[in-house]
Design brief:
Elements lengths: L1 E5 L8 H14 L4 E5 L5 H7 L7 E4 L5 H10 L4 E5 L5 H10 L2 E6 L3 H17 L3 E8 L4 H13 L3 E2 L4 E2 L2 H8 L4 H4 L4 H18 L1
Helix pairs in contact: 1-9, 4-5
């Protein structure tokens, strides 16, 4: 079983969107997936409430119950656990980071978003776990923004995942109806990017 913590100190960075899309991508690849929603807003759990499909399992728990939720997922035979964390909750984020095999830091390309990755980078260092920035909501073709974001991440000693998630309507529209991009528009570019990101993450976890 592998565990991935999806973290950012800034709200609106794309944590829940990234978490849910990766969860469904893993499920489509044949994995048994559990999403642990630590955010008091419970956005991931709300998405599951509007979803017809039984998978992935999504559980909303307070951060103090994270160890019990992780054990329950193990006992249930989960192949992959994705932890969706809350912004501005460093103690919970650190607990998730320590429990994870890999930390993903979603960020938009704006300067305020990029500055916010420093806090999560510090948590990853304290936890001693590998962490990568995932660029999302990138305007199509904005190569300069991507390069600027890579430079900003490097300041914090972080690498950027090679797969960039561009700004696509399917990402937001799909969540509204309890789906993800791969289900809502299977042949779309968003679905392709999510599939490629999942495959890259799978390779990182296997290494």
């Amino acid at each position: 079983m592998k565990t991935v913590a999806v973290e950012s100190g800034k709200g609106g960075s794309g944590k829940t969107t990234t978490t849910l899309n990766l969860a469904v991508a893993a499920g489509l690849a044949g994995k048994t997936v559990v999403v642990i929603d630590l955010d008091p807003q419970a956005s991931a759990a709300g998405w599951k409430d509007s979803r017809i499909a039984d998978t992935p399992v999504v559980v909303s728990v307070p951060p103090t119950r994270l160890p019990q939720a992780l054990q329950a997922a193990r006992d249930g035979g989960a192949d992959l656990i994705l932890i969706d964390t809350a912004p501005h909750a460093e103690s919970a984020a650190l607990a998730a980071a320590k429990a994870a095999d890999l930390i993903l830091i979603p960020t938009r390309p704006g300067i305020l978003d990029l500055r916010a990755i420093g806090t999560t980078a510090d948590l990853a260092k304290i936890a001693g776990k590998p962490a990568f920035v995932v660029l999302n909501a990138i305007p199509p073709g904005a190569t300069r923004l991507v390069e600027d974001a890579r430079s900003a991440a490097a300041v914090h000693g972080l690498e950027v995942a090679p797969v960039v998630i561009e700004q696509r309507a399917a990402l937001s529209h799909s969540l509204t109806v309890g789906q993800t991009a791969q289900e809502y528009e299977p042949r779309g570019k968003a679905a392709e990017e999510i599939a490629r990101l999942y495959e890259w993450i799978r390779a990182q976890l296997a290494g």
